[in-house]
Write a structure and sequence with these properties.
The chain is mostly beta strands and 92 residues long. The chain has a single domain, classed as Elongation Factor Tu (Ef-tu), domain 3. The protein is built from no helices and 7 strands. It has a 7-stranded antiparallel beta sheet with strand order 4-3-7-1-2-6-5, with no helix packed on it.
Length: 92
């Protein structure tokens, strides 16, 4: 069960490659708005594909750069994708 007060919906506004080692990549995703912060840096983003498939993307870390909050993930989501985010300490 999740605590709805610490879940939110948003949209991916930007994505950039953080690192790649062979077939393993890490990405940085910016959202229109977020509840993640450096003091609440982990949780999950959930997106639903047009096919109806549900994709859960763990948020591994968060940092701010030039006024943008970047979410470090290991699965890319394209700009314009709607997501639901939930902070880790409120996942059950």
């Amino acid at each position: 069960m999740t605590d709805a007060r610490l879940s939110f919906t948003s949209e991916v506004t930007d994505i950039r490659l953080e690192s790649r080692a062979g077939s393993i990549a890490r990405w940085q995703i910016a959202l229109e708005h977020t509840l993640f912060s450096e003091s609440a840096p982990t949780g999950v983003l959930v997106a639903v594909a047009p096919s109806g498939a549900r994709l859960e993307v763990p948020v591994l870390a968060v940092f701010e750069q030039d006024g943008t909050t970047w979410h470090v993930v290991d699965k890319p989501l394209t700009a314009g994708t709607e997501v639901t985010g939930t902070l880790a300490e409120h996942l059950c």
